[in-house]
Write a structure and sequence with these properties.
homotetramer; alpha/beta; seven-stranded parallel beta sheet; 11 helices; about 30% helix
Chain lengths: ~350, ~350, ~350, ~350
Amino acid sequence: MFVSIVGATGYGGLELIRILNNHPQFKIKSLHTSSQFGRSLHEENAHLMHMKDKLEKIDPEAIAKHSDIVFLATPSGVSSRLISEFSDLDIKVIDLSGDLRLQTPGEYEYWYKKPAAPKPIIEEAVYGLSEWNAKAIKKSNIVANPGCYPTASLLGLAPLYTEGLAGAASDVVIDAKSGVSGAGKSPSAVTHFSEMNENFKIYKVNQHQHIPEIEQQLGRWSPGMQPIQPITFNTHLVPMTRGIMATMYIKVDRQTSSEELVDLYKTVYEDHPFVRVQPLAQFPSTKQVYGSNFCDVGVAHDERTGKVTVVSVIDNLMKGAAGQAIQNANLLMGLEETAGLWNSPLYP
Amino acid sequence: MFVSIVGATGYGGLELIRILNNHPQFKIKSLHTSSQFGRSLHEENAHLMHMKDKLEKIDPEAIAKHSDIVFLATPSGVSSRLISEFSDLDIKVIDLSGDLRLQTPGEYEYWYKKPAAPKPIIEEAVYGLSEWNAKAIKKSNIVANPGCYPTASLLGLAPLYTEGLAGAASDVVIDAKSGVSGAGKSPSAVTHFSEMNENFKIYKVNQHQHIPEIEQQLGRWSPGMQPIQPITFNTHLVPMTRGIMATMYIKVDRQTSSEELVDLYKTVYEDHPFVRVQPLAQFPSTKQVYGSNFCDVGVAHDERTGKVTVVSVIDNLMKGAAGQAIQNANLLMGLEETAGLWNSPLYP
Amino acid sequence: MFVSIVGATGYGGLELIRILNNHPQFKIKSLHTSSQFGRSLHEENAHLMHMKDKLEKIDPEAIAKHSDIVFLATPSGVSSRLISEFSDLDIKVIDLSGDLRLQTPGEYEYWYKKPAAPKPIIEEAVYGLSEWNAKAIKKSNIVANPGCYPTASLLGLAPLYTEGLAGAASDVVIDAKSGVSGAGKSPSAVTHFSEMNENFKIYKVNQHQHIPEIEQQLGRWSPGMQPIQPITFNTHLVPMTRGIMATMYIKVDRQTSSEELVDLYKTVYEDHPFVRVQPLAQFPSTKQVYGSNFCDVGVAHDERTGKVTVVSVIDNLMKGAAGQAIQNANLLMGLEETAGLWNSPLYP
Amino acid sequence: MFVSIVGATGYGGLELIRILNNHPQFKIKSLHTSSQFGRSLHEENAHLMHMKDKLEKIDPEAIAKHSDIVFLATPSGVSSRLISEFSDLDIKVIDLSGDLRLQTPGEYEYWYKKPAAPKPIIEEAVYGLSEWNAKAIKKSNIVANPGCYPTASLLGLAPLYTEGLAGAASDVVIDAKSGVSGAGKSPSAVTHFSEMNENFKIYKVNQHQHIPEIEQQLGRWSPGMQPIQPITFNTHLVPMTRGIMATMYIKVDRQTSSEELVDLYKTVYEDHPFVRVQPLAQFPSTKQVYGSNFCDVGVAHDERTGKVTVVSVIDNLMKGAAGQAIQNANLLMGLEETAGLWNSPLYP
């Protein structure tokens, strides 16, 4: 099966290339970029010196002719324009941007400060949280690949909602931390090495655009699918390249224990090979999923406060972006969910 | 004035030496260690190659004869033993360990898993949160220097409590992050470079011994000084050497706004040069206090959730340990609070 | 084909496991350790939580019965003892330690301060620098896998020697730098995070045990295979986990130019997919081979000094250890040299 | 005494501010910048939130009226223009750029690719390697503050030249490594955190503009002050913020030993408090001078090769830039050489 990538030279695009180079069924057919077309991929990417691929212009019709799937690894605001051009063509689209994730255009415009994608396309798009939406993904033509923070947060919170321990009225605090690659490839003062190294920063305090994405999905899991109470959500930059940890605090609706919670999580994720639930009293570090598609989750009940602590880690470029996109592509095409993704984390 | 340090070769002791080398009034009289006495300080501390000091045995009587103040930069469990030997002697003691911070011996023994210090000594010890306890510190003989996390947390939360926005029943979540020097100088698997680099870890989930210290102090600030609701408090290791950030979420008891909060914080800390309150909508990073005694605080009201977000940063070895110890020594001795501590942060 | 690993829990052993998990022909049959047998592999290796393997005692006869190859990922001094037990059994051995690399026992004992392996075994062992010794490796029973620094250095210098630009009398300076994982998994003061982070260290000045290994191999490439002039070789620790760079300065024996050198290197390595020669005036960084088996080489002639500068980078745990070991295993077993190793570097 | 800084917002300027804030005799009179004038210093420098200073336009006449010394912390090419405006005014100038260091304009233009400063100014400028040129500095009006790499290299090599072990014909290899702050404050692809973190890079291979500066100074120390043989000099970026190590290899002109060399270095630097010579068989790491004005040097004779290894470390922003500039200002003004600079390194 042939796939193409639009936005091949950003970190998301490069990670797709890395995975696809070892994928048993998918073959990269073409790589596209709005700015560097005509050049060789390896020119500004010395790590890919062994590859001969050229970068091409973005030509949806040509892409649709030779590829089964196109990945849009383009920034928010760009995807929504491209998606319209692809939507009439015979090709599956997986969009890694935030453009198709929010079902309410007004919400998108409020949080992203940009025009929303056309309503029919938003409605056609399926939210690609692979472990929880596989049925819909398999039948879809357009997948809205989840954000990195929502992936970590939602995989960590899901069992509480689906098993009835939390609901629309629950008080949820998500304190999230990310490696710097989440900020993308463009140099800036914030990500300048001498500023970011040996530093820990908070950013977009109470205003991150992933807030409505998490709330929307939690709402779907709540009884009656009603809108949930606003969540508290903050994000920090860690002086490292890859990795996200979401540390989450939730007041649950009934008595429970750490033992019960670990059992419940293990049961829920039994058939989901990419979610690894930690044993009782153990919690994950970001490095234990480095370069892999795993999401590792630890959970505990704090008897003093009655709150549940959930700790969830992913590699932001893998399960948080390109890895989950390939996982969704596998689902779309009826392949093994783990095809091309079953590598162990790089360690140390 | 002469000072001595017991536990001179740990990170706390070395930081005291660094500060004291430039202090206008204090002069190091002697350096003590339980294990390396007889050797020269610089032998295992190449950064102090310009110093000639020898390391000596711990001899409280001799120390009390030649020094006005002794700093105990010793681990919890060791300080409580030493403190008894110093308490009858004519010398002021500043203890950097956790041994004298908790007023209830049972609490200490529950959280530290060690025997508590003698009750009379605990009662004599004054909690050395300099900005909030200066009067008592000035008259004391024994100062219990606060923990690193409590310092960052309490300086960030104090105005909410003292100004009546929060109280004993408030729901408080503190998500704290620390550089690795907080784990001390002894090598371990957790702090092995290849394990900790490019990694973000959570540790002691819901069980950190700084929890009761924070709760005790918040209780003192609450109306009626009643015990407060258990707080949620967690700690993480950041792949950097120095710096602590406490990100805090509090449901406050009345309507407020970010503008009001910033003003209130600025007023509260007006005469406290080491606490720098950020302008509206700005939040601190750990690096902006690197190597300094500042505590920088940003505060905002989240209109969606009604919660207040407080972000507080310190250098864990300075304001979080040795710096605050010197600040307390300055208070004890009637010096300028800032003597020897008024250096700008190292940047970048 | 079945393989086993002795010393499975060190960084070399874990990296072998990571590669083998995705190898198309090799299957891990058993994992062995002298200290942790009886436990599950994932117990102290959370990144391998998805694996069920048990750690077993070291039993050469049992291993030889069920495996075609055994990897000894054991420290120097341990391998030499184990190797004797395996040498009479029907199994191929690939030793990752330094025990079988030096042909002269006296040299080994001088540099390693340990007794050398038995002479017949040393003589049987083939030096596993895959690109330069493939013929001998294919026919061997025992492979002495090269050291990390020698691999980077020798792949960078080889063309100068084999093409007659350098020889036994050449003045060679190798200034090498390594990520900290090269120092192994045991915590120590040197590799304690707070000591090593934001630090750059030199170690074993003029005394690294890889010196004789490099000299021995350069001697084999020199005309008449005569012993070469002592080389200058030093090693540094970089505050990063993975990666080696060898920066090398050689006075060559005839006039040349950067253009000629790049062409010459490209020709020499044309059929060696893991060695990627940089274009003219470009030089590699360590990150461009991260997690991969590539060795990237840049070369230039300095017209001012008449010296040649060669810059060679590898991932020390891959091409510098486990990766090359698998490459040698592929050669031994008649597989594609790249089997299981053809992944792109992790980037960024 | 009053001082002003032109180029106050770059890393060199900010480091001058940090030092001057604690200097016993110098007081900052004004801060100047070509782009951000009119703003407050702390606006983009949160670490200086406790300072009230404004940034002003560059007005040489006004500066000369109120200040005794002006520091030019401006880029190469800018200083040479400014210097002419200051040279007729009654003010001492210390230039941190490379514009006044090379005595031959043609050399400057070849290496810097820019027009040289006016010949009379170049001739008036004194090379500010404090330990070796104090007499001339004390009498000068214009100081050319040395480059960071030349400072580390020259302090490490000087004794070999001045004591007759090396000379114009010596073969010198300098392999230098720097923290990333040496690349300045402007974000770029090279210094983007995700690119530079966990990476080790070589740059400007054989072409660094500090080469002629080192050669010029070595020539002055050589017998007859003749031009020396071209040196081999290369530079690397280390994933850390501060610190330079120069590892140097020199064939010396007579028999020697490590013992003799260490003694000789100790004697040479006996009265120079900022140069700390390591004991026999010990070598410095960059962190042991972090944030200080020390240059630590280790030296050894390699009996195998007959070469001398010198390892020299500095903090590139201190002894390599702002620290040495203040040291030179102290000399200029007849103060203690160590005034305002005698702080211990930040550790860990």
